[in-house]
Amino acid sequence: MEDIKEWLSLPPQYTTFRVNKLKKFDCNTLETYLSTKAPELNTTSLPNYYFLKPDCLVVEQWPVDVKVDKGRKEVIVDALCAAAVLRGAHVFAPGVVGMPTNCQLDEMVDIYGDIDGQCKRGLKVTFQGRKLFVGTGVLKMLRRDLFDNGVQPSLLQAFIIAMDKTRQKVEKLKENCIKQGVTCVTAYAFDSTKCCSNDSKNIDSGPPFPPNSFDKVLLDAPCSGLGQRPQLNNKMTPKMLESYKVVQRKLMKAAVDVLKEGGTLVYSTCTVTIDENEGLVQWTLENFPCLRLVPAEPLLGGPGLSGSGLNDDQRVMVQRFGPEVDNLRLAEPIYRDSIGFFIAKFTKSH
Question: 220: which of 39, 124, 147, 323 is 20 to 30 A away, CA to CA?
Answer without folding.
Answer: 323
